[in-house]
Specification:
By secondary structure, the protein is of the alpha/beta class. Helix content is 31%, strand content 25%. It has helices at residues 14-27, 39-50, 98-103, 116-131, and strands at 4-9, 32-35, 61-62, 73-76, 87-91, 106-112, 136-140, 147-152.
């Protein structure tokens, strides 16, 4: 059973945090889907990932190509995990289901702590996912480094 990790971004922007989490995920041998809500924003993230350092290169692709299934990291607005992902990273409020949390090794929900709508949406996602029995952790970088601030585990039945 997987776990949802909520990342409340207050110090580092998405363009800095996402590559760090992607690198940690690929080091574990996981394939990753980055699910967004806007194609233009995913194209922007694609460019940010391509312009990283050589030692931090993260092989990835935008969904819709002939080799989606082969991509270790796939950026998409679609719900399908066409690359056989073990990890899903939700950005910009992209939907995540409790079934996905249960089926995958890890689900990361990244949200902008300076955007009240994004914070409210993340709170709703936390409530919905934990209400359906998903295990979740809330991480904040407010103190200067990532710290777990809350945890919810499913009740044993």
């Amino acid at each position: 059973m997987g776990q949802a990790l909520f990342y409340h971004l207050t110090r580092q922007p998405l363009a800095a945090t996402l590559p760090m989490l992607l690198e940690k995920s690929t080091q574990r041998g996981w394939r990753v889907v980055v699910r967004g809500t806007d194609e233009g924003r995913l194209h922007w993230l694609d460019q940010k990932l391509w312009s990283g350092t050589d030692e931090g290169f993260l092989p990835h692709g935008l969904a819709g190509g002939a080799h989606d299934a082969d991509q270790p990291i796939l950026l998409t607005c679609d719900d399908a995990l066409t690359n056989g992902a073990q990890c899903l990273m939700s950005v910009d409020g992209a939907a995540v289901s409790a079934q996905e949390v249960a089926a995958l090794d890890r689900v990361c929900i990244l949200f902008d702590g300076h955007d009240p709508e994004a914070v409210q949406l993340a709170r709703g996602q936390w409530k919905a996912l934990t209400g359906e029995g998903a295990s979740a952790q809330y991480w904040s970088e407010e103190g200067g480094r990532w710290e777990m601030k809350a945890e919810a585990s499913p009740d044993p039945a």
